[in-house]
UniProtKB/TrEMBL annotation:
It is found in: Membrane. This is G-protein coupled receptors family 1 profile domain-containing protein. It comes from Meloidogyne enterolobii. Residues 34-204 form the G-protein coupled receptors family 1 profile domain. Pfam families: 7TM_GPCR_Srsx.
Length: 204
């Protein structure tokens, strides 16, 4: 039995509101345009292409594009569902609808860690710091991003309840139980590595 509008939680109604979805659309367009423009600048400028830091920013832009694209997909789906009066959602569909955003957030942490390590090393050892792009290192960071994305997506999809519908089409509501364990481990690991980088900077 589908719940009526008055029976639904306030956060679910707000999630489907025109105001919030309009803001999401605007944010998506701004995110896509700005990040694609940044990538264009890097490939257009020969000096920017030579910088290691710039390529880390490209990896961060890659993650931001996934988030913006994911917001666009989710917003479009929510508007379509609301227009058809859909109040209950399939968990599996919602997982895949929200997956691009999840991929972006996962990739963002790796890119931020790479940028933090690069900046710390530049400050700690300015004479030894090599600003020129190291393709091998960039590919390693990108590979870690892809592996992390694959692992995160797997834990969100595998082992979830695909029978019981959910009232809010969000990744938090749709994710499988395993994802919370992986998410905590992944987030804490990234945070620990970031603190290690900062601590190394402080003691040297």
């Amino acid at each position: 039995m589908s719940p009526t509008t008055s029976q639904r939680p306030l956060y679910a109604l707000w999630d489907e509101s025109i105001i919030l979805n309009t803001i999401r659309y605007l944010g998506s367009f701004v995110g896509l345009i700005s990040n694609f423009f940044l990538i264009f600048l890097v490939f257009y400028s020969k000096s920017l292409r030579k910088s290691q830091y710039t390529w880390y920013m490209i990896l961060l832009s890659f993650a931001d594009i996934l988030i913006a694209f994911g917001h666009f997909i989710r917003t479009t789906y929510m508007i379509n569902a609301s227009s058809k009066g859909i109040l209950l959602y399939s968990r599996l569909i919602c997982v895949w609808i929200n997956t691009p955003m999840g991929m972006g957030f996962t990739a963002t942490r790796i890119a931020v860690l790479a940028i933090a390590a690069d900046r710390c090393y530049m400050v700690i050892n300015p004479l030894k710091y090599k600003w020129k792009a190291n393709l091998k290192l960039i590919l390693i960071v990108f590979t870690i991003q892809i592996i992390s994305i694959a692992a995160d997506t797997f834990t969100k999809v595998y082992g979830g309840d695909n029978i019981t519908p959910i009232t809010m089409c969000s990744m938090g509501a749709a994710s499988a139980p395993m994802s919370s364990w992986f998410g905590q481990f992944y987030s804490n690991s990234c945070l620990a590595l970031l603190f290690c980088e900062i601590f190394k900077f402080l003691i040297l």
